[in-house]
Amino acid sequence: MQFKYVSLAALAATASAQSMMMNLTATLANNTNLSSLTTYLAVLPSSILTMLETENNVTLLAPSNAAFAAFLNSSAGAAISLNNTAAIEAVLLYHVLNGTYDSSAIMATPSFIPTMLNNTAYSNVTGGQRVEAELIGSSVTFLSGLLANSTVTQANINFTGGVIHIIDAVLTPPQNISATAQAAGLTSAVGALTNTSLAGPVDDTSNLTVFIPSNAAFQAIGSALSNVTAAELTSILEYHVVNSTGSAGAIGYSTNLMNGTKLTAMNGDTLTITISNGTIFVNSAKVVTPNVLVANGVMHVIDAVLNPSNTTATANPTAATTAVAFAGASSVSTAPFTSGVMAPTSTIGGGTVAGAIGGGTVGGATATSAGMATSTSKKAAGVPMRTGAVGAAALFAAGAGYMNV
């Protein structure tokens, strides 16, 4: 029958195409734009190379020679040591996605794809540290730690185990929450966590979703915080932290947040997610910068401090500014808890940190018509986007110390 001949011919063509594919090593060696990546792969233990060669159904995000050169030529890049194989292994495994993702599979709605970075010295996320994949305009883009942006410059290079996309910047493995918040200029939150001894538990617990108020949010209720006890401050901070494993069953990346979702915070009280006209709210606070990946989950920056004594505070999407959740509180001239906290020395996600994310003016969130949240671009207009150069170089040089885990 004719259709049998067609099917057999198609199968034969597919088998022939597969037999002509090269393995990972040969594919990389055959692309002169990836010679730097080949050099770093060569210093890994043979067991890692064997695993990469034999692994099926993976996507490799391959930094170009120019991407490696950019961070090698940076001030921090000079500290790279090829002898630091553990750190090199962590960074390179963060570039290997579990699953084969052709460029056409990346949509405007972000997806959070697990990678092969499972080493608990660098990641504390069940199933592998995530990278955010998103179609921004016509560009396939991957966002990593510190909102570092890597864009695909050559897509869909097939090899026997999956597909390779060449990217223009080295991915940055996410840091812990304290280090990320400090880099983002969220110095009130960092100081408050330190003052209550919550920094360790928040940094070390796996699979967390954390809603971090901006400095402006803390400043807006400064009068209520001036005489707060350590126990009261601890309860306030715990109300911003969700253990995703025990609460929602999944880390609260924006795409996992649905309108009406109820989350149980670390202090046992309930948080309510509202999505209205494309904006995400937690109780009455608005998410101003979503999906900041951290070593043990995800962080969302919000424009108001949540009040565990006011769990019924609800979103008011039509309000020009978010009302504070602490009755009678007034603003103060200086952001609370910032004494002794280091100011950031770099940028995150394209913004000048202290004035952008720390001040609550960068980013946003949108939702689909079904009420599922997704993120918009997290760039600050007019400020260069941070790449993975500084973060990756620091990790190469310092190993686990970079991750602060």
List the uncertain runs: 1-19, 351-405
Indicate the structural class: alpha+beta
Count of DSSP helices?
A: 14
What best-fitting shape do the alpha-carbon axes yield?
elongated
In total, the number of strands is 16
* Succession of helices and strands: HHHHEHHEEEEEEHHHEHHHEEEEEEEEHH
Rounded mean pLDDT is 82
N-C termini distance: 64 Å
Q: Which strand order spans the largest sheet, edge to edge or round the barrel?
A: 2-1-7-6-5-4-3
Helical content (DSSP H or I, runs of 4+): 25-40%
Radius of gyration, rounded? 22 Å
Biggest beta sheet attributes: 7 strands, mixed
Key descriptive features of the protein:
28% helix, alpha+beta, 16 strands, elongated, 405 residues, 7-stranded mixed sheet
Describe this structure in words.
By secondary structure, the protein is an alpha+beta fold. Helices cover 28% and strands 21% of the residues. Strands 2-1-7-6-5-4-3 form a 7-stranded mixed β-sheet. A 7-stranded mixed β-sheet has the order 9-8-14-13-12-11-10. The longest helix is centred in the first third of the chain and has 19 residues, at 2-20.
